[in-house]
Amino acid sequence: MKNILAIALTLITLLTGCSQKPEADPNYVKEINEWDAKRVSRLKADDGWLNLIERFWLKPGENTFGTSKDNDIVIESSKLPEHIGSFLFVDTTVTFKANEGTDVLFNNKPVKEIVLIGDEKKDMTVLQIGSVKFNLIIRDTLYGIRFRDLNSDLVKNFKGIERFPIDQSWDIKAKFEEYNPPKEIMVPNVLGQIDKEKSPGAVVFERDGQTYRIDAVDEGGDKLFLIIADQTSGDETYGGGRFMYVNKPDSTGTIDLDFNKAYNPPCVFTKYATCPLPPLQNYLKLRIEAGEKVYGEGH
After folding, report:
1. Among candidates 165, 121, 139, 186, which has minimal Cα distance to 29?
2. In the CATH scheme, what architecture does the domain 52-151 have?
3. Nearest by Cα to 163 from 273, 26, 29
4. pTM of the model
5. CA dihedral sign, ordered 285, 206, 161, 16
6. Residue 15 has what DSSP assignment?
7. Residue 220 confidence class, pLDDT cut points 50, 70, 90
8. What is the CA radius of gyration of the chain?
9. Alpha carbon distances (Å) from 259 to 4, 24, 65
10. Would you call the peptide bond into 265 cis, given omega within 30 degrees of 0 as the criterion?
11. Which tens digit of pLDDT belongs to each residue from 185-217?
12. pLDDT exceeding 90 applies to what percent of the chain?
């Protein structure tokens, strides 16, 4: 009887231990918490994703805009005039023209007419009326205007994003398998468009005895961009997947793949973002219980 009781107690101990997450190093926990704090600061910044209030796609020709219902673009905001001006969309050029008596600023100076530089360029044109800023965005053949309110309620009330408990076992040493030449991969977005991106290689890692691959996108600089989905997507995490940035491989071809830094696309916070979705090969048959969970209801 004593032997049976001892065996039972041993089994209970083993099962309890398996259900608990391993203790993370305090310095590592601090690193992830600091990363998360910076992430929240970026979201709440003037050029973050929380203050978007509208997005409109332009039709060829003149597009009048303001809060009045007789405009082509009607903005629901008490902070803007009824008739602000117009966007003239001809071929691939968009020109902003302000109505008389409307104070629109560019670089803190009044502007009456200006050709807009889109968000694909570093010197993007940003115009402002009070706390509202707006700029041209270009998505393949679509040209639109995105508006943001620097004093939006979402920014004021944002409390952060729920995360899985920090689990250092998800900080994985992966290998980089180079594609020579780079492989062209199809990356869909929420608008239904398909972008062709160059993948320099795959980030390959193991978990629970299984091998997984993630095709990476090189956006320049010293990092690779990963768009992934897993078996938590659409449940605990956003159905449109999550994003990660990782450093490019070191001299041994090793990459630090830390899923505790997997984060939500902008579309989780606003319907006015145009997010890429994971390519089919980046849907992983694995539950990645690390990183950010879905925020609100998503979009």
Report:
1. 165
2. Sandwich (2.60)
3. 29
4. 0.84
5. positive
6. H
7. confident
8. 24
9. 42, 14, 43
10. no
11. 999 999 999 999 999 999 999 999 999 999 999
12. 86
| Interior angle at CA 238, CA 159 and CA 283, nearest 5 | 145
* Residue in the structure block whose two tokens are 């600023």: 105
- With a pLDDT cut of 70, the percent of the chain lying above it is 91
The token pair at 159 is 């409390």
Question: Half-sphere exposure (CA, 13 Å, Cβ side) for 44?
Answer: 15
Distance in angstroms (rounded) separating the CA atoms of residues 265 and 38: 16
User: Cβ(235)–Cβ(266) under 8 Å?
Assistant: no
Q: Is the pLDDT confidence value at 299 over 80?
A: no
Cβ-contact 175, 30 below 8 angstroms:
no
103: which 2 tokens?
A: 């104070």
Q: What is the SS3 assignment for 59?
A: coil
Structure tokens at 91: 């071929």
CA dihedral (45, 268, 106, 99) positive or negative:
negative
Token pair recorded at residue 293:
């969970």
**Cα–Cα distance measured from residue 98 to residue 176, given in angstroms and rounded to the nearest whole number:** 52
Digit-coded pLDDT (tens) for 82-141 = 999 999 999 999 999 999 999 999 999 999 999 999 999 989 999 999 999 999 999 989
**How do residues 8-34 score in pLDDT, each as one tens digit?**
434 433 333 333 355 779 999 999 999
132-165 in b/e form (b: 16+ CB < 10 A) is bbbbbbbbeeebbbbbbbeebebbeebeebebbe
CATH 2.60.200.20 spans which residues of the chain? Answer: 52-151
